[in-house]
């Protein structure tokens, strides 16, 4: 039986982000409080009798097999597994998923009975956890392509809390100890002597699960990529990435299909001179060990870029978090207004 503190904490965390819409079945889960939530977990989700629910989090998730479909999920961490209780609209979102999700209960569609898919990743199958830049997301990797999930928390606090809870639960696992490590100096531990490049910072947990954090070079690579996209010749040394945040772009296009969400996931990058929106691949990189070929698309694809000097005003909504910002740019086809003025009007 969980402590009162844990029940209270899980109840507080059981809240769907206001800007995301979910199906009736997940609305039902979000309405559960206290011991009812724990009983629901044991009665409907838990696979063994003696597992304990330790943490609950609402997050958007991406699967390796379907990298373009972001779906809302209730993520439940127990002492045995990580459960992803998925929005049932996800199953019908992509025709390529028929082999990934074996749908046997399609006759329930028209009844008042709400069905949710639950994806289970057992802790014993967990191999590594990659934490994204500035803790905006993390990717959980198991032993095959079916067992790779990215949680897009878009919130460093939620990411940090989940990683802490996951480490605590992994410490309870009885796994055979790793062989004794050979003493290494700092450079052989963190760097490759052949290339002189620093590898990503790895923390190997006592359960032998790797926790991989990005290093400074990832920001350097991102700055280089951003400099490539900028029109002006920018000195890479002076280019600083001031902000990297996973956000949504609000799509006001009324013509778009009614089923598509008006919120389009984007990575916002702010430099001292420009504001960029990128479409980022959050699940394919770094490449899993079993990947035979590189992903079909680049990690970052430029969706929009504007100069800060063309920014006319920023409109701020009054609602609570998440805040809506509207950037109004005063650029005429991205051309400098003072360009060649003297030559046109005062020349011969």
Automatic annotation (TrEMBL):
State whether keyword Cell membrane applies. Answer: no
Cite the entry's keywords alphabetically: Cytoplasm
Gene Ontology terms: cellular component: endosome membrane
Q: Which residues form the PLEKHM2 PH domain?
A: 114-178
Q: Which Gene Ontology BP terms does the record give?
A: Golgi organization; lysosome localization; regulation of protein localization
The answer to keyword Cytoplasm applying to this record is yes
Q: Which GO terms describe its molecular function?
A: kinesin binding
Give all residue intervals belonging to the Nischarin C-terminal PH domain: 241-347
Subcellular location(s) per record: Cytoplasm
> What is the protein name for this chain?
Nischarin
Species this chain originates from: Opisthocomus hoazin
User: What taxonomic classification does the UniProt entry list for its organism?
Assistant: Eukaryota, Metazoa, Chordata, Craniata, Vertebrata
